[in-house]
Specification:
The protein has 314 residues and is α/β, with parallel strands linked by helices. The chain is globular, with a radius of gyration of 18 Å. Helix 1 (31-43) crosses helix 9 (262-275), helix 3 packs parallel to helix 5 and helix 9 (262-275) runs antiparallel to helix 10. It contains eleven helices and 13 strands.
Length: 314
């Protein structure tokens, strides 16, 4: 196929979100899928870099909801050829409840096929080797067995060594890990294979004790990340790029309608801008503008048709 390949690796799930009264709305989402979604929208604006394909690497079941997800991704031009199928498992599910714009989640993912996404070593290694940019998250690592985590990081490390973009959002979800110490150790190891790290300060301060966004950025660099962007809930963010100098950037805070997908959309906007050749500071502004649009609507994914005319993506 023509075009360069952005590969997002992780778990996509059925999303149930409150709609009106006792009604619930079904959709599809998941941190790495959300970022792939916004990458697709942003890279559609690319008239300079030569065009990008966006693909998702995961594992689904043979159940009807898995089939619907495949059709949904295909319809929105997120390639599904790297998604494996498991006849013994199914797709995970989660629900979102909102309280003054902030979210709380309930999960049903024990039999999620995505937990075995790294079991086929040949498929995973081949997909990553074909990619020109790779993205994964702390959730991707958390759902895998320890030896599968190690294999995934080994493959990503080879991609970084080849000079390609390897991006990582720690997206701390302690309940998915066997222990807090294991979570911290694996996130440090992931930093060492990431050309771009995208941590969120509130989570990092809670679990790593960072005093401020500058300390957070420095710690990620010390652990091996190349470029670091510390998100801060819509407030001041920190950028640590190649020179080693930390730049802070003031961002407009907004009251969210629904904060679901805020960080994921920021990641998609930032990575797409960097792939299009924008400097980190400009990329961060584009990403923040996109995230503000996302938190102003319900659900993790804004309709692709609405995003195609979004000025923040240009």
């Amino acid at each position: 196929m023509s075009g360069r390949l952005f590969l997002s690796i992780g778990e996509a799930m059925v999303e149930l979100s409150q709609h009106e009264g006792a009604l619930w709305r079904m959709g599809f989402a998941g941190d790495t899928l959300n970022t792939a979604w916004y990458m697709r929208a942003c890279l559609d604006q690319d008239t300079v870099a030569g065009g990008w394909r966006v693909a998702y690497f995961s594992r689904l079941g043979a159940d009807p909801f898995s089939e619907r997800m495949i059709r949904f991704l295909d319809a929105n031009r997120i390639e599904t050829g790297y998604i494996g199928r498991d006849p013994q498992r199914n797709v995970g599910l989660y629900s979102i409840e909102l309280h003054e714009g902030e979210r709380s989640f309930s999960y049903w993912r024990g039999q999620s096929a995505a937990r075995l996404l790294a079991d086929d070593e040949a498929a995973l290694a081949s997909a990553i080797a074909q990619a020109d940019a790779v993205y994964f998250s702390g959730v991707t690592l958390a759902i895998l067995a320890p030896d599968r985590r190690a294999f995934l990081l080994e493959c990503v490390a080879q991609t970084r060594a080849a000079g390609k973009m390897t991006a990582f959002d720690p997206n701390l979800r302690p309940q998915l890990w066997e222990s807090a110490d294991a979570m911290r150790e694996w996130l440090r190891r992931a930093a060492g294979v990431a050309t771009i790290a995208l941590p969120s300060f509130d989570d990092e301060a809670t679990w790593f004790g960072d005093a401020d966004i500058l300390a957070c950025a420095r710690r990620w660099r010390e652990d091996g990340a190349g470029e670091v962007v510390v998100k801060n809930g819509g407030g001041t963010l920190a950028l640590l790029a190649g020179s080693g100098e930390i730049e802070t950037q003031e961002c407009t805070r907004v009251v969210p309608v629904d904060s679901t997908g805020a960080g994921d959309s920021f990641n998609g906007g930032y990575l797409a801008a960097r792939l299009r050749g924008l400097a980190p500071s400009r990329a961060a502004r584009c990403a923040h503008d996109l995230a503000m649009r996302v938190v102003g609507a319900r659900g993790a994914l804004l309709p692709m048709a609405d995003l195609s005319a979004e000025p923040a993506l240009r």
